Amino acid sequence: MNALSNPGLLALWERGSNLHPLDQGLLALTAALPDQPPDGIADWPLGRRNRALAELHCSCFGSTLQACTACPSCSEKMEFEMDVRTLMSEAPNSGATIEVDGRTFRLPTSRDVAAATREPDPVAAANRLLLHCMMGADDSPNWSEEELERVGDKMALADPMAEFRLSLLCPACNQRWDETLDIAGFLWAEIDARARRLLWEIHTFASAYGWTEAEVLSLSTARRARYLEMIRT
Hints:
7 strands, 10 helices, single chain
């Protein structure tokens, strides 16, 4: 896993700013894993992808993930932080299949999820996802919600890192609820914030000293911070 350099991060941000969140996560992994073919990463099971995204977050931004949410009961704003390394406690499952009612399914990938998101109805999206994952069948069944849940539960057991669920407690009303952690979204938010900060620093140095982007990015973080202090005084 290669950490992203400042020039590499800016190039990644520029390429991915207008992409779908799924594609942003895959693009980030492609930049950090240049030896892996992009199409191959898109076909990783979700658990393997999520673990790699967590590793990339640690490499580039540290292990602490800071987030905010709102209580679904009283709308109280909550801030919390967690150690991303806790998301990497289990080894990802890369090749398991499951069987339900005589049908065999492989684990969902980013490509499968992308196809399912094209369906506006949640049940239709779940049906499309299972259809993509079903192996060795030429029929196109329309699963009931109970069947969808049964297959989904088995997939979750086979690939527990495919979805990160957080248990939260509201300090204002004591409401408890679970929330899905979108590791790809959090990683891209960090990339976006870092890129915007770098662009502001480049603009500041160019205005003050006439330096080029490459000259500014060649400086260490500590030296850029010191120069910014002198510009402000």
